[in-house]
Amino acid sequence: MCAAPVFAQVRGRLSGVTYVRCVVFIREHLAGRGTAEVPLDEDLDLVEEIGLASVEVMELIEELEDAFDIAFPLNDLADVRTIADLAGRVHQLAESTG
């Protein structure tokens, strides 16, 4: 049995939002979904290489919105392919609302 992700129980704004913290959150979320057998490098494509369905991407974004107290614009999804893309955009949004 694996431990619950560090951020899974957090709701509301996380203090000190950094790019690395966003990457860690995403990796922990994905590891909790049974993707642990895939090394979760930042340059992996969320759909093509990790195998997330579009609904799973949306669920991940909802978790990120809750954890970092942001609103992720749906039109930004077109620019998000990798873990790095997603973490970078979440970090930008968190910084701009902070």
From the structure above, extract its key features.
single chain, 98 residues, mainly alpha, Non-ribosomal Peptide Synthetase Peptidyl Carrier Protein, Chain A, 3 helices, 48% helix
Termini Cα gap: 36 Å
Structural class: mainly alpha
Strand content: under 5%
Task: Provide the CATH top-level class.
Answer: Mainly Alpha
Please outline the major beta sheet: none
Helix content: 40-55%
The CATH topology name reads Non-ribosomal Peptide Synthetase Peptidyl Carrier Protein, Chain A
Number of helices: 3
Mean pLDDT: 82
CATH-defined superfamily: ACP-like
Tell me the overall shape: globular
The count of β-strands is: 0
Radius of gyration, rounded?
12 Å
Q: Which regions are unreliable across 5 or more consecutive residues at pLDDT < 50?
A: 1-14
Order of helices and strands: HHH
User: Architecture, CATH level 2?
Assistant: Orthogonal Bundle
> How many structural domains can be distinguished in the coordinates?
1
Give your account of this protein's structure.
- Helix 1 (19-35) packs across helix 3.
- The chain is mostly helical.
- The protein has one domain (19-97): ACP-like (Non-ribosomal Peptide Synthetase Peptidyl Carrier Protein, Chain A), CATH 1.10.1200.
- It contains three helices and no strands.
- The protein is globular.
In short, what is this structure?
With 98 residues, this protein is mainly α. Helices cover 48% and strands 0% of the residues.
Question: What is the topology?
Answer:
Blueprint: H1 19-35, H2 54-68, H3 83-97
Helix pairs in contact: 1-3
